[in-house]
Amino acid sequence: MANKEALRELQGRLAERLHEVKTQERVQSWLAVEAGGCGFLFPLSEAGEIFQCGALVRVPHASPWFLGVANLRGVLAGVIDLGRYLGLRGGASGDAAEATEQDRVIAFNPSLDVNAALRVDHLAGLRNASQLSLMPDDGVARPGFVGARYRDAAGRIWVELRLALLARDERFLRIVGAL
């Protein structure tokens, strides 16, 4: 019960913050999450509703990172384990032993027109450009959906993931695993 109340409070704060962001000067803002031990930033304009991890219907022959299909407020969405998709952790598809109370599912914004959601290990709140320092390009090749890298005041590195570009990534769209 306390978890549901905490989630409602967080969603309320996020809704307030989203409203503030829409009425304020355009400042780059993100939803900060953790997956596979790394910090990621989802642009607020591309992130959708946040859900607790619930029941998933597994999909036969899917890649290990494709956890299954969930009913998210009446919308069927494919749920992808972000840590596995990015190669930050292994494990069998739908391994329930890995799920924790902190795990959340972040739906893609409906404006992206993709019925998908990302399972993450932990929500880390909201961030904006004034809280982060842009790190110089290190020359490492990354997929097109990976944006800039930032460092916060505590020295933690955060990597921007552009969900709109991720939703069009060829590998992301091919959920069938090796047969």
TrEMBL record:
<protein>
    <submittedName>
        <fullName>Twitching motility protein PilI</fullName>
    </submittedName>
</protein>
<dbReference type="GO" id="GO:0006935">
    <property type="term" value="P:chemotaxis"/>
</dbReference>
<dbReference type="InterPro" id="IPR036061">
    <property type="entry name" value="CheW-like_dom_sf"/>
</dbReference>
<dbReference type="Pfam" id="PF01584">
    <property type="entry name" value="CheW"/>
</dbReference>
<dbReference type="InterPro" id="IPR002545">
    <property type="entry name" value="CheW-lke_dom"/>
</dbReference>
<feature type="domain" description="CheW-like">
    <location>
        <begin position="27"/>
        <end position="172"/>
    </location>
</feature>
<dbReference type="GO" id="GO:0007165">
    <property type="term" value="P:signal transduction"/>
</dbReference>
